[in-house]
């Protein structure tokens, strides 16, 4: 064997390693149907949060997933079907967090837990919250942010009704006060989504401070002030 032969063999082996034959190439793993579905949901969730459902197209979703448009239609029937799945997941996530927060404790503690749970959702699922606070498309079968707030308010209503009875107030007003309290918390959550200051703990503490101290000093029969009353 000449000295050139080992050198030639080394070069040949290096070339094979650099450019393997087709049968030795590692085949890329194809996504399962479930994995592809989750990929499309994740991509759409980001786009819906940034641009809304109207500003998002099937073409862009497909392009980001490196698939053709028919793949999106195959899994969800179209953009609206995909949007419905994304919203439904966010609805369930937020409701689970809020319901878990309203299971035990006194009225003030429950109010604190509800406020903290909503702010936690805003903090940990900002994209989801952005999607929920947008208007759902006409005919969408999924719940909207308004319906979520309504569900939470109904739970707060029961708590307030018992508290009103204990304090001698008219319990028939509990539904209205529940809407006011939950509305205050949800609106603050929308503001905090962008502000992010002060911290979640501080915001929750001030929410409870305003709501609870206001409740603890309710007038039995409140009336609107007239210009004469303000003098």
TrEMBL record:
Residue ranges: DNA binding: 57-76
Annotated Basic and acidic residues bias: 20-33
Keyword terms of this UniProt record: DNA-binding, Transcription, Transcription regulation
Native source organism of the sequence: Mumia zhuanghuii
Protein name (database record): TetR/AcrR family transcriptional regulator
Residues in HTH tetR-type domain copies: 34-94
Organism phylogeny: Bacteria, Bacillati, Actinomycetota, Actinomycetes, Propionibacteriales
Disordered, as annotated region: 1-33
InterPro entries: DNA-bd_HTH_TetR-type_CS, Homeodomain-like_sf, HTH-type_TetR-like_transc_reg, HTH_TetR, Tet_transcr_reg_TetR-rel_C_sf, TetR_C_32
GO MF term set: DNA-binding transcription factor activity; transcription cis-regulatory region binding
Pfam families to which the protein is assigned, alphabetical: TetR_C_32, TetR_N
A single BP term in Gene Ontology: negative regulation of DNA-templated transcription
């Amino acid at each position: 064997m000449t000295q050139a032969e080992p050198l030639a063999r080394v070069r040949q082996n290096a070339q094979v390693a650099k450019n393997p034959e087709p049968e030795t190439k590692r085949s890329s793993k194809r996504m399962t149907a479930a994995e592809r579905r989750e990929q499309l949901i994740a991509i759409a969730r980001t786009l819906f949060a940034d641009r809304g459902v109207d500003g998002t197209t099937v073409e862009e979703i497909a392009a980001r997933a490196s698939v053709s448009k028919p793949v999106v239609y195959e899994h969800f029937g179209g953009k609206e079907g995909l949007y419905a799945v994304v919203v439904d997941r966010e609805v369930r996530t937020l409701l689970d967090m809020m319901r878990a927060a309203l299971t035990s404790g006194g009225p003030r503690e429950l109010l604190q837990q509800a406020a903290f749970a909503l702010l936690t959702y805003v903090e940990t699922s900002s994209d989801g919250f952005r999607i929920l606070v947008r208007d759902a498309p006409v005919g969408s079968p999924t719940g909207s942010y308004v319906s979520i707030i309504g569900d939470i308010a109904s739970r707060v209503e029961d708590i307030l009704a018992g508290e009103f009875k204990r304090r001698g107030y008219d319990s028939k007003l509990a539904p209205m006060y529940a809407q006011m309290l939950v509305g205050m918390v949800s609106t603050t959550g929308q503001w905090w989504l962008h502000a992010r200051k002060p911290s979640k703990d501080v915001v929750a503490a001030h929410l409870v401070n305003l709501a609870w101290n206001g409740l603890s000093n309710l007038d039995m029969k409140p009336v609107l002030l007239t210009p004469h009353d303000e003098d």
